[in-house]
Design goal:
- The chain is mainly alpha-helical.
- The chain has one domain.
- The strands form 3 sheets. It has a two-stranded parallel ribbon. The chain has a two-stranded parallel sheet with strand order 2-4. Strands 3-6 form a two-stranded antiparallel ribbon.
- The longest helix is centred in the first third of the chain and has 31 residues.
- It is globular and about 60 Å long.
- The N and C termini lie far apart (41 Å).
- The C terminus is likely disordered.
């Protein structure tokens, strides 16, 4: 009988192969094989862009060492996925682990501002830029530092060393013993995407539109699990309801509250841990994403101190749910 480990390895291998296959289709197969036959094949980029969310989820598994038990191959596949994603794996990994350490503290609370230091109007432009694509664009733009000498990294680190950001700590993590990996991955990213733009030729705008859509999808979902949650609680995150099919599609990333409490759990185990904790959602995924449009929130706002009412998972039609439950999702 196959072991659980071998089954997980097979699943991970299939997921990575599918992710890299989707990426190859976007970057090279469509422009080199399909577009010469008909421009209509460009519409294939629409469904392919929607795989950006599960692509990040697979990469996220590698960041936490949950993709494969073999650490070397886990990180190798993570680096390959990072190159396809458009940002060096070591940058994504270090940044995400810092997120787990400092989430909802002054160093990492995206939507919160100090009223004594700034205003909503001053904070809003940067907030909305980040929300609608800026986060991904900042990650991708990091490749411009590939050839920067180490002393420039240290200079930037000191310039960016403020108590309300993790940027300086991120620079420390990369320049320690990992700058070589960052540089190599960044160069490969530039070569891959420069090659893809060349392959698209006069249809280059199709690829840029696909990348812009990826930037929005990645960025708009990033802080939805933390928006308006309590401050100074790094374990604080919401579980957001999605239909079970979509939950599987995003590799249970919607169970983010469980993930923050148990970051070492692989995605297939999150549902079991969620049910063991009582199986309660704070709200629906779509509502959580949409309410971020409210914008920045002052640090003294009571909205940040009030726990959101949890809601049970909607039941199937064979076991009717109480009236009004769907209205809260």
């Amino acid at each position: 009988m196959p072991s659980r480990t071998s089954g997980a390895t097979t699943t991970s291998t299939v997921l990575v192969a599918g992710a890299l296959g989707s990426l190859s289709l976007q970057l090279f197969v469509i422009p080199l094989v399909l577009l010469p036959r008909s421009n209509a094949y460009g519409w294939l980029l629409v469904p392919l862009v929607l795989t950006s969310t599960p692509f990040w989820s697979i990469l996220h598994e590698s960041i936490h060492g949950s993709l494969l038990r073999d650490r070397t191959w886990n990180d190798r596949l993570g680096r390959a996925l990072g190159i396809g994603y458009g940002a060096p794996f070591i940058l994504l990994k270090s940044g995400h682990l810092l997120h787990h350490r400092f989430s909802r503290t002054p160093r990492e609370r995206t939507e919160v501002y100090e009223p004594a230091k700034t205003t909503w109007a001053a904070r809003a432009p940067g907030y909305y830029l980040r929300l609608f694509g800026g986060l991904y664009l900042a990650e991708a733009a990091s490749v411009i530092l590939a050839l920067a000498p180490r002393r420039l990294w240290h200079r930037l680190r000191h310039l960016l060393d403020t108590p309300d950001t993790v940027t300086a700590l991120l620079f420390d993590a990369i320049t320690g013993r990992k700058l070589g990996r960052f540089r190599l991955d960044a160069i490969l990213i530039v070569l891959a995407y420069a090659g893809a733009l060349t392959a698209y030729g006069p249809h280059w705008w199709m690829l840029l539109m696909a990348l812009a859509a990826r930037a929005v999808l990645v960025s708009v979902a990033d802080n939805a699990y933390h928006y308006e949650t309590a401050l100074d609680e790094p374990l604080e995150a919401m579980n957001l309801h999605l239909p079970r099919t979509l939950e599987s599609f995003v590799l249970a990333f919607n169970l983010h509250g469980v993930h923050h409490k148990h970051p070492g759990l692989a995605w297939p185990d999150l549902r079991g841990a969620f049910e063991a904790d009582g199986g309660r959602f704070e709200m629906g995924w779509w509502r959580a994403v949409a309410r971020q449009i409210r914008g920045p929130i002052p640090a003294d706002s009571p909205r940040l101190r009030t726990s959101l009412p949890a809601v049970d998972e909607p039941r199937t039609s064979s076991t009717p749910s109480p009236a009004g439950r769907w209205s809260r999702l």
